[in-house]
Amino acid sequence: ISKIIKDQFMKGIILRPGQILSMEDTRNIASQYGWEIELIQEDEINPFERLVESYQNAYREGTRLVQRPPVVTVMGHVDHGKTTLLDRIRKAKVAEGEIGGITQSIGAYQVEIRGKKITFIDTPGHEAFTEMRARGAQATDIVVLVVAADDGVMPQTIEAYNHAKTANVPIIVAINKIDKPNANIDLTKQQLASKLGLVPEDWGGDTVTVPVSAKTGKGVEDVLEMILLVSEVADIKCIPQGHARGIIIDSKLDKAMGPLATLVVKDGVLKVGDYVVAGSSAGRVKALINENGKRIKEAHPSDPVQIIGFDEVPDVHSIVYVVDDLDTSRALSQYSKGQLQKEKSVTNRRHVRLEEFLSM
Ligand code: GTP
Ligand code: MG
Questions:
Q1: Among residues 322, 328, 314, which one has the least CA distance to residue 265?
Q2: Could you tell me the distance, in angstroms and rounded to a whole number, from the CA of residue 302 to the centre of ligand 1?
Q3: Which of 100, 120, 163, 325 is the most buried (most CB within 10 A)?
Q4: Is 176 annotated as a binding residue?
Q5: Does 122 count as an annotated binding residue?
Q6: Helix axes 130-138, 155-167, angle to 10 degrees
Q7: Number of the ligand closest to the Cα of 102
Q8: Three-class DSSP category at 139
Q9: 124 is in an annotated binding site
Q10: Does the beta carbon of 124 lie inside 6 Å of ligand 1?
Q11: How many CA atoms lie within 13 A of 143 on its CB side?
Q12: Is 126 assigned a ligand-binding role in the annotation?
């Protein structure tokens, strides 16, 4: 190192350890020592961009688009009653079976209300699950923000609201637990306004608030009514046919079944036998499982579904694409792997640090 620094210094070029050299300078200096610099990899074209483009074009043209059911994410502070509200809507009993009564993963369910489907995503309210709340908000069309009327606006209420705002989706506030003697709807509304800037409609603002009791069922119909109303205004569309794509909201490694991914289909039809890619994991759909644990043959836009068949657990942020064949899916996953490695490797940086250059 010091020899090169000295040599260059003698030529009037001042180099410092840690300095980043341009490719040109690197070549220049290397040639003085009879070395050649080889760039291992030029920036290649991202093959995912071509995939995305075909969907984007369809959305731009708009002619093939049709309505799809809304995807509604239920968010809010821990214990404010999200799972109980969803149980009430689904006539199920998830909340009671949860360990410590705390939701620890994302659950996705579809219900049909007067012939209209709604997909619900439940999220945990415990502060440790920020990431899951962020993910839930990204995959959704509408957020139902649950605020317990006996507790008011709390830290994760604020956090959840911020995720919804970032995702730029409409918010419906469900003021829950109104059956409790210490429930204070007015105080909750005041806090919504002062802490979140969400001024209720009946106070002259434009925030939809619905008083509800997930326990007694009072107001639950109104929540559903508002969801259908808001989703009509939001004009939620999809490409109904062709290769599916969807967003992964949860994934894990199952001892018996291997990598499992829960996704919400956004476009197209996802079928058993389809070749899929999600980031660096590839595969073929061996089975599709709906929320009731039933095997289904295909899934349509806004359907929540579990895929068995990925070769590794896909990232929860990733988008699943159906592609023509296994080669394509492998090539795309390889590309993603390469990108990941690139981020770690030094050989590919266009700028080379002096020490790295010298240790080559
Ligand atoms: P996390 O998922 O852990 O954030 O909680 P959660 O928001 O899903 O709350 P959950 O539905 O598990 O309810 C928490 C507790 O509040 C449970 O004991 C419920 O029975 C109770 N609860 C939920 N809704 C109501 C309600 O409307 N009234 C009353 N009185 N209790 C309720
Ligand atoms: Mg819950």
A1: 322
A2: 26
A3: 120
A4: yes
A5: yes
A6: 30
A7: 1
A8: coil
A9: yes
A10: yes
A11: 28
A12: yes
Q: Which two tokens stand for residue 56?
A: 């984007």
Beta bridge partners of 260: 252, 308
| Token reading at 178 | 């109104």
Helix, strand, or coil here: 245? strand
Which protein residue has the closest C-alpha to ligand 1 atom 24?
A: 81
Q: Is the CB of 211 under 6 A from ligand 1?
A: no
- The model carries a pTM of 0.81
- What is the whole-number distance in angstroms between the Cα of residue 6 and the centre of ligand 1? 71
Ligand 1 centroid, distance to 177 Cα (angstroms): 8
Give the distance (Å) from ligand 2 centre to CA of residue 203: 30
Residue 237 to residue 302: CA distance in whole angstroms: 10
pLDDT tens over the chain, length 360 residues:
778 878 887 787 777 766 777 777 888 888 888 888 777 655 567 888 888 888 999 999 998 999 999 999 999 999 999 999 999 998 876 777 777 777 777 788 999 988 899 999 999 999 888 887 888 887 899 999 999 999 999 999 999 999 999 989 999 999 999 999 999 999 999 999 999 999 999 999 999 999 999 999 999 999 999 999 999 999 899 999 999 999 998 899 999 889 999 999 999 999 999 999 999 999 999 999 998 889 999 999 999 999 999 999 998 878 999 999 999 999 999 999 988 887 766 544 545 445 444 444
Distance 3 CA to ligand 2 centre (A): 64
Tokens of residue 50, six digits? 């071509």
From the number of C-beta atoms within 10 Å of its C-beta (0-12, 13-18, 19+), residue 195 rates as middle
Question: What ipTM does the predicted assembly reach?
Answer: 0.99
Check if 213 has its Cβ closer than 6 Å to any atom of ligand 1: yes
| 3-class secondary-structure state, position 80 | coil
